[in-house]
Amino acid sequence: MKGINRKRRIVLILCFLYxxxxxxxxxFAEENGGAVQTNGEIAFFEEKTTQTSNxxxxxxxxxxxPATGEVVRNSLGGIGVLILLLLLFLxxxxxxxxxxx
Length: 101
Fold this sequence. Notes:
Helix content: 40-55%
Keywords: Cell wall, Membrane, Peptidoglycan-anchor, Secreted, Signal, Transmembrane, Transmembrane helix
Number of strands: 0
Radius of gyration: 30 Å
Mean pLDDT: 76
Distance between the termini: 15 Å
Largest sheet: none
Organism: Enterococcus rivorum
Protein name: Gram-positive cocci surface proteins LPxTG domain-containing protein
Shape: elongated
Domain Gram-positive cocci surface proteins LPxTG: 65-101
Low-confidence stretches: none
Signal peptide: 1-29
Strand content: under 5%
Order of helices and strands: HH
């Protein structure tokens, strides 16, 4: 009987830890003060430049977006779910074997 309660406690702790670490954290901030008015001025101008080198200009690759890490986040959540399912399967299998004995 003590073994079952201990296993339940371990499973509950693992479920709690999984849910605590898998949830996203959001931060909110308040503005202190407000908009500041200035009497500044923005001006644009172009400088005339001449190319002195005969080398062709290097073109940047197009069509790729920067990586945001979302794939890693989703895969970590999936790994956590798989581990949880594996633990539940092993717990159920061991419990079934104990009942058969």
